[in-house]
Design brief:
The complex is a heterotrimer of chains A (about 325), B (about 300) and C (about 270). By secondary structure, chain A is mainly α. Chain A has helices spanning about 15, 25-65, 70-75, 90-120, 125-140, 140-160, 170-195, 195-205, 210-220, 225-240, 240-245, 265-275, 280-310. With about 300 residues, chain B is mainly α. Chain B contains 13 helices and no strands. Chain C contains 11 helices and 10 strands. In chain C, helix 4 packs parallel to helix 7 (about 160-175). The chains are: A mainly alpha (about 325), B mainly alpha (about 300), C alpha/beta (about 270). Chains in contact: A-B, A-C, B-C. At the A-B interface, helix 2, helix 4, helix 5, helix 6 and helix 7 of A face helix 1, helix 3, helix 4, helix 5 and helix 7 of B.
Amino acid sequence: MTDSVFPSPAAGDSTRSDRWKPNRSLSKLSQRSVVILFGAFAMVSVATTIGIISTLLFETIEFFLEVSPLHFFTATRWTALFANPSFGVIVLLCGTFLTSFIGLLLAIPLGLLAAVCLSEYAPRNLRAVLKPALELLAGIPTVVFGYFALLMVTPFLQNIVPGLSVFNSLSAGIVLGFAILPTIASLSEDAIFAVPQSLRQGCYALGATKRETVTGVVLPAALSGIVSSIILGVARAVGETMIVTLAAGQSPTLTLDPRVSVQTMTSFIVQVTKGDAPYGSIEFKTLFAVGMTLFVITLLLNILSFWFVRKFQEKYE
Amino acid sequence: MNPIDPQAQGLGLPETGNFKPQLERRYKFDQIFKIISWAATFSAIAVLAILLIGVLSEGIPKLSLEFLTAPPSRKAEQAGIWPAFLGTIALLLITAASAIPLGVGTGIFLQEFAQDSKLAKVIEINISNLAAVPSIIYGMLGLFVFARLLEPMTGGRSIFSAGLTLALLILPVIIVSTRESLKAVPDSIRMAGMALGATRWQTVRIHVLPLAIPGILTGTILALSRAIGETAPIIVVGAAAFVPFAPEFSVEGFREPAFTAMPIQIFNWISRPQEEFHAIAASAIIVLLMVLLVMNTTAIVLRNRFQSNR
Amino acid sequence: MQSEQASPTAVAGLERVFKVENTSYYYGSNMAVRGVNLEIPGNKITAFIGPSGCGKSTVLRCFNRLNDLIPSAHIKGRITYHGVDLYSKAVDPTELRRRIGMVFQKPNPFPKSIYDNVAFGARINGYQGDMDELVEKSLRSSALWDEVKDKLKESGLSLSGGQQQRLCIARAIAVEPEVILMDEPCSALDPISTLKIEDLMQQLKENYTIIIVTHNMQQASRVSDRTAFYNAEPTESGGKVGYLVEYDETQVIFSNPKETYTRDYVSGRFG
């Protein structure tokens, strides 16, 4: 009772005050130590960010001491693992762009239409089954999609597309699209489903049909959620590793031909780390320069997403 | 207002004002739009179904007890996934043991003790940034920090390093789901606890946390199931291509600088040119998917029970 | 009173806009409203009052078939609009809703500019005239023009609550309906905004037939020409079913009602 600023109400009656002996100093101590401990835990996530940035930065600076940034960003050949290396990251960016572009060309329209279908057209009980199924599919490891791309889709496409090589960005891109489709569909559906019913009713009351209500009012109202799901999809496509490593191959070629093998930033990283590059070698540093490029791209996408949500999020009750 | 004559157009009403509604044309668009959106949904489902059926039909014939318990081999018919399976279990243990206390603790701190503080805002933005970072970048962090800088502790390119890397990868997911679950507990319960003279922590521990635990568990299991399917980060940290022995479940075993896991094993078998290895890759995929299915089902059952109790 | 003011050009139409005959409404197997009979006169304001759960909003939403959006809901009985059975197969609810506008409880402007909020309905319904003119006319009719004429490109959501509600009225007027249904249009608004909307209703009834659902008895007595009082009674299954108690000139309902329930309700004894 020593820590109480209040006078004991039963000062004259010792038998009553004896019944209450709260161990306040102990409970205060445990409160304080928990706050400090959990606060320290919270710093781990901040430390992760700092760790990622400084790790990448540290080796990237080392890299740029040996290779000029001008060469890195303007050269058009990538032969980092050869005797007379050239480091034109454009080649890897092009590979990443090509596979992501094919994937997104598929995943964005299909994902959005599926989201509209689930939220607006599917009966409630079907939605209750399909929505968790979608989330389950979003959890399939990408190495499984890599198997699908290399061993099922490519052989199938080779029957249709003439001149399709075993490793190609077409099949990698298509499967990449189906891998990120559940994510885009599920997150967009959340945004579309959350549009208040009163807005739909307001539109119907003007004599709009269902499609006009969906495209004219519901989708614009869900725009910020839809766009951030798409940007997340883009980030996933750019950072996707296993599908492109397995199905698009390891040939750093500057091409937009979807039938031939390309190397993406991520598949280059896998190629180097599988080969056990010694610390301090130029290959090892290249790894981080490429990682940094990838990180900056996803960071920019994230900033774009933040900006968009802040600018376009509509406030509904 | 135009005068209205209901008899002018059969059962329908005459047009008022200067409108040409063209309803038939609009309904046609409606119909087309509806068909396209159903077609999109079904094509997505169909492709994913083809994937699963293809994997199952390739993989089931090779699935056997020997396959589960044998080490990998240079001969496909003798190869098994025992070391890879145990490697995945070991990774799961390390990841869970480090990510759960960190993630749940951070979630409690942010939601219950530091709400609306500047620190909480910074961490919040930080977490949503981390969620968009590709997993392979985490691999590079793990390679540099755990496998290289902390080599004396982790043993280098070991299960330890890989497990900690995966823990950092899923930390944001656990933090967010902890916060969401705590947010769902009504404030009246906190007020009631505090009004009885309990400290904030006592209230959280005794009254709030028990109500939030099913939600936290669901989020955590989903996050862990994501972790064990991850391939890219542990390749970067240094999972080896060929590990014929199972890891020893001890501190020394986990520090062994050679390890493998199921996704790595699958990746390696797919990468081989021989078709026999492709078939056992499918078998290994089935095993991995079964593990994930069990985890996901647990999570969904938990979530449903949680939701129906509210 | 209505018959003297009826438009001479409307032979069979304007006088009785709606006729509700022995209409019951169900959500699934639960009866929500039982056996309503009433007629709505043209160019008048008719108020629906009553305690919550009495089915007044449900009846209101029958007039533009907005209840159709609830899958399990269905109607028994007959509602005619200028003699046409609203629920007959030949009537297209989309077409109907353009003729019967609606304003909702909470302002629900679309996430579009002020201009596009007003123009949206006209555009989809194939308006043939000058759109700028129509937008201005509609905003003037809803007494909003002067407040927004310099910021038509701004989002409709940037307006205050009362302005948003008048924007929703402008939006409804822009498709040139005959009837405007108002479902507690002022319940989310402050007293000053409420007063503005009430004034506006008085102007609008020159050109439109208005049916308003309100919780606020003073509002009903201030603005309406006729008042329908609904009440709810418990059902055997533990739910509630609404029914029409009394329907008459507003001044009769408020000064000299026939039913005791009505008298008790308008004098504030329950509800």
